[in-house]
Structures are given as C-alpha cells and as structure tokens.
Amino acid sequence: MTYDTIIIGGGIIGCTTAFHLSRKGQKVLLLERDKIATGTTGNSFAWANASVKTTDRTYHNLNAAGVKGYNALQDEFGNETPGIDPTGALEVVSKSDTDGYKAMQAQARALTAFGYANRWVSNAPPLRHMYYSAPKNELHILPEFNGGLKIASDDIDGMIIENQTPDHLRKMGQLLLDRAYTLLPQLTGTIDIVDCDLGIGVRPYPTDGKTIIGPMPDAKGLHIIATHSGITLAPVLGKLMAEAITTGSYPEMLAPFGLTRFTGFA
Ligand SMILES: Cc1cc2nc3c(=O)[nH]c(=O)nc-3n(C[C@H](O)[C@H](O)[C@H](O)COP(=O)(O)OP(=O)(O)OC[C@H]3O[C@@H](n4cnc5c(N)ncnc54)[C@H](O)[C@@H]3O)c2cc1C
Hints:
Layout: E1 5-8, H1 12-23, E2 28-31, H2 57-77, E3 90-93, H3 98-114, E4 130-133, E5 139-143, E6 149-152, H4 154-157, H5 166-183, E7 212-215, E8 223-226, H6 230-247
Parallel strand pairs: 1-2, 3-4
Antiparallel strand pairs: 4-5, 5-6, 7-8
Helix pairs in contact: 1-6, 2-6
C-alpha cells in the first residue's frame, strides 16, 4: 500500500488535517497509538473562541479563522454531526475586582478594535457558557453537547500534573465543584464527585503560547503542528496544512508560526 500522506496522531489536529487532505483527493494513513481523540482532545474544555486572544492581532486572526471554520462546518453538516454547540459565552467579573474589571474592559476594547463580536452588559441573564473572572475564584462552566456540565479553572488545572493519583484528581474535582457551588448556589448538592468523569489533558503549550505549524527544518516532507487552543484552531490549521502539503507552499497566514522562530531551528 502506498499513501500520499501519513499523519501521526488522531487528535483533533491530525483528524482535521486528514479530513482536508482526503477532500483534496489524497490517500491518507492516520496512525493513532490509542483511540481517536482520547489524548488532549478528549480531555479538553473545547471552547472554540478567539475572545481571549487579544494581545497579538495575528494570533487573534488565526483563532478567529478557526471559529469561522466551525461556521463553515455548521453550514455544511449542521451542528449534530461535528458536535458543535454554538452557545456564545458570558464573561463575568465583579466591579469590586478592580484589576479584573479593568482587564476585561481592555479585552472588550481590543475585541471591538479587531472586529470580533462582543458586547459589554450589566446584569446580563446567564448564557449557557459562562466564564467567571475573580482573583481567587476563576471558573469556566460549559454545558456538554449531549448532557452534563464541563467545569474548569486555570488555577486548579495548575495543581494537577500528568500521572496524578486518582485520589488527588478527585480532591481537585471536588474543589471545582465547591467553587461552582459558591458562584452558582442553585447547583449545590446536585452533583456527586463519584459520578463525575475526571480526566487529565496535557496542554501542548509552545513557550511563546502560540501555534507551531510548518515544515520540520532539515527533514524534507515532514511537517508539524503543535498547538494549544487546538479545538478552536483545528478547522483553519487542518485546512491550511492540507493546502501546504498539496501545493508545496505554505499560505501567508501561517508565516509567523513556523518552528524557525525559535532559537536553534532558524
Ligand atoms: C484542560 C484543557 C482545556 C483546554 N481548553 C481548550 C479550549 O477551551 N479551547 C481550545 O481551543 N483548546 C483547548 N485546549 C487545548 C486543546 O484541547 C488542544 O490544543 C488540542 O486538543 C490538541 O489536539 P492535538 O490533536 O494536537 O493533540 P491530541 O488530542 O493529544 O492528539 C495527539 C494524538 O497523538 C497520539 N500519539 C502520540 N504519539 C503517537 C505515536 N508515536 N504514534 C501514534 N499516535 C501517537 C496520541 O495518542 C493522541 O491521540 C485545552 C486543553 C486542555 C488540556
């Protein structure tokens, strides 16, 4: 058997790239050592957005293109097949959290300048996806597409390492639940930690926080993608990588994100 392209890794990035290459008529082999989407992808919070990317316009645009990619998937397949739940998001900050309030105002200003849909409201009714910003109480809550809630918090994430003991994982899960109860008292007592799915996802974070996508220097025909926000970015990265592989040249939009930006790879 011969293949046009072999992809290593069946997470969202590998699968999306395989999808776009196949659409271009390529014969693709996808190698996955475990099961499809059981790595980081299967343990992701999976919020597709560009609203938290406000410091770098180029990176914001890449993420916004990812969100648009989901709109295109919705147009083609509907929401059910690709599992898209277009909730929007409500970011909540208390006025008494002066720094957090200022930061959210700056975020909103940047998004407006970038042309990214957002609205500043007071006393908004809760949306289905909520993000609470507080100095010691940050929390994300997202309803799962097929039932249940996903609860996450960046600081509690930071207390968990790979290969964590189940006991510690349960304790951290309980911490998340307690925080959710504080912010949403109506949830109190409705969720038992033993009924919760607890998983560990390892965040692929290049040191500058941005995507790595491009050819591997000195390895002809080898291309890599390593990225955080891969759920948001998969539609655009998979599509553009397929374009690069089939045409032999990388789209301009990806120019800032090559591995050669790091010392030792130039
Ligand atoms: C807690 C958490 C929350 C997150 N929240 C968000 C979010 O809200 N929004 C967002 O956009 N992103 C989010 N991310 C990031 C996002 O989930 C990742 O960027 C994305 O899932 C990465 O996908 P991937 O396909 O590159 O990696 P993976 O899903 O890890 O896929 C890689 C695959 O490669 C396989 N593999 C590895 N080595 C080999 C080998 N030698 N041979 C064969 N197969 C191999 C693995 O088994 C794995 O299945 C979050 C991540 C975490 C951990």
